[in-house]
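Form P-L/3: holo structure prediction, ligand FE2/S2 (inorganic) cluster.
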Amino acid sequence: MADNGEAGDWVGRGHGVGRRTFLGYVLAASTLTVAAEFGEAATAPSRAAAAIPSPPEPSELYDLNDLLTDATLPTANLISIQVHADGTASFALPRAEVGQGVTTSSAMLIAEELDLPLDRVHVTLADARPELLFNQLTGGSNTTISTYTPIRVAATLARGRLLAAAAEQLNASVTELTTKAGTVLGPGGAVVGYGELAVKAASPTIVPVPVTLKDAGQFTVIGTPRNRIDALEAVTGRKQFAMDLAVPGALPAMICRPPTINGTVRSVRNADTVRAMPGITDVVPVTTGVAVRGRTFGQCIDAVRALDVDWGPGTEEGTSEADVLAELRRAELPLVIPPLPLLTKAVDLRFTFHFASNSALETNCAVADVRPDRAEIWGSLKSPIVAQETIAADLGLPVSAVTVHVTQGGGSFGRKLFFDGAREAAEVSRATGKPVRLMWHRTDDFRQGRTHPMSLSRVRATYTLGQVVGYEQRHTSVGTDFGHGLGEIVTALAAKLPVGDLGFSETIFELTQQTPYEFGVTTQLLAEADRGFNTGSMRNIYSPNVRTAQELVVDQLAKGMGQDPYAFRRRFLKDARARAVLDAVATAGNWGRAMPAGTAQGIALHPEYHGVVAVLAEIDCRPPTTGRKIPDAYTGPRVTKVVCAVDVGLAVNPRGLQAQMMGGIMDGIAVALTSSLHLENGRFLEGSWDHYYYTRQWNSPPELQIVVMPPTTGAPGGAGELAVAGAMAAVACAYGRATGTVPTTFPVNHGEPLGFEPLPAVPPIPASPTDGLSRVS
Amino acid sequence: MPQHTFVLNGEPVTVEVESDVRLLWVLRDVLGVTGPKYGCGLGVCQACTSHINGRAFNPCCVPVGDLAPTDEVTTIEGLPATVGKDLHPMQEAWLDADVPQCGYCQPGQIMAAVAKVRQAREAGHEISGLDDAVFDEIRNICRCGTYHRIREAVLAAADRF
Ligand code: FES
Ligand code: FES
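OUTPUT (holo model):
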């Protein structure tokens, strides 16, 4: 391509800039460094509504001086790409990579626009950059939506600069040149590598340059399936997570936690004895318990178990599930049932969704090195700016004295929006005066870690004469902590105001919940109760519960009106894209095929994040299947097949999208059938993966097919969470049809007798077994 | 402090540490071998799965004092060398199927899969696509839900080593 990407018709920022024309910058640097504006200006048309409700007036919360200082930084709000003398490009992504594949998709955008092989693009994770304000939050499946344009603008500009530098070197005009796989090709077979041009193309000053993006029709990388750029590191064990970092002097640290949720330390009776245990260097009380630091985590576990602590009450002392349920019932907003014609019938159901754990396989953890005048933190953080500013406030240090490095994360599912581990690590490092690698024990991660709140969903849908005339849903949830705000301290502070936070939850609810069907007068409202739990959003926030309730009601409406569930949905769907994915799964999944009693199909749909997914699930609820015996496992109904069709507008990496759908489906199966926390007397009983029945191989569907729809909108939507709600709903509908019931409690096994013996609450964590050699396999 | 000698990824190593410290922490915190991951410390999640004398085990459940000097411990870092290559065929199959998401569970998954295939082979089983029983014995948690691609990769690699 001869087009160097620089636009000829650019008039000015915000004036007359065409749809595909944007402003890029060549930054002052010794090697080619290009940048683009990141944030509102660059992405306003395609920004996810879900993630960005109006922030409060910031003036009283954020010092004007801070704002001015930040805003005048020469690189404020820019993301930049560097081209190096070795012919590679590098980019520090201001987002967290927790498995969702955003480093790979970002590298693909750069490879596309820079015309550089994917393996020569290196994407790292940016440290906390407070000047980015709202723009360093990884959440709401918003990364690709918000970075799609800026990254492409910067990469396009880089290619243009390289072409210009080559033109000068070859004494040719840019129109005679093309690029190919990291080289510039010129007249007479001239070939110049990008590496050779990187220094020449650099600029001693900042130069703003208008950039025109190419058409989607010219894409050769975007939209093609690519493997993850970090897969080799992952399969060789070289991928480094926070606890793998060798930070000098950072010894393992753990916290002895209270027996009930958020209990407090009154006194420690044997600190000296524990401090004298092998390997232990420190024992100090901290806000959340008693911290121990030692040579190995194994010795920390022993020390935690040996501590004798007088514990004060927690924030949910004595509370059990029935209490929360009653509280939710009291908080439920009333339905507004309008006067209805005589023949109107109604489906009226109330669903209960139990507490679930968003614990990742990597437990809460972080490395901290706190000195009297500065601090350095390493962790997988989705809101690193809030972490930095909160930790600075905790330590009484200026924000600029706290460096926060974002490490690769071992899963998130909502967990890493918070920085509980990082905050504790900083406190322990301060208290001991030494660097620490702080990690939560698995048992603590389930019991004291954040949960997806328990909720009720009351739905009343009315129908008459072949039409659904009204749909009301009242969702009542234990309060969800959105204290990570929108990735910036201004809103984080606002969310801590009781009114502000409530308003914020409702805003999120309103901005995320859609009814994809034409159901007449439709209202969906949220009410919250009880704020004593450690909560957070779990992958897909409210949607899995809200949509599962709705899709089960849809099946009942179809039944009441004598229609097939697929045909009924098809008829009432508002949107052609939704109809297309529904048709795709019905066809690929052979909807309506004859199946034996005790088995069934279920079908459901979920629109969100500028995308839509449909899921068809088949389930086997026959006794030989539900009674399968696997040691220490919950088997239960088996989802035997899932077909999923997804339309995200434009899939940057269809293979990564498929992976996200598969993962979301495993989550959906878990929350529909097996995974929940049981609350008893102020504490959660689950303390191990053999108690919290997240999907395992024996629960995962032997047949799984993901259909990625061809591009529709041409702009990428969010992918990380989309499948959870669709899959949970489809599995619930399949379960209902297989058993001839309407399941109203989730997961459906929650009321069964506990399948495990709960671990003791004191000591808070179990000893590691010692019989590993007798279990070699 | 007691000394313990064993063979780690083909090389004898000697560490000075209390005998009851579980091997996972000796590997990670003392020797800096971080491929095996912590996910529970209870022998449940299987994230730490490595091999001892060619068989799968959980180093989080083995006191280092239980090891004999001749015991050969292989972590993900040492897996390729067991077949004299840069990558074990199971790792290659993993790359072909683009299995990892976050990657945290993957060293344990691969070590478990290699041992499971060897074990099935020794028992005279061929692993086929329909063999649920074999996969039911792979207990490793993948919180990112990569189970389906794990199946594909195991099946693809089963007759490659
Ligand atoms: S950490 Fe060893 S089995 Fe979980
Ligand atoms: S890839 Fe994340 S836990 Fe398995």
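COMMENT: The first strand of chain A starts at residue 21 and ends at 26.
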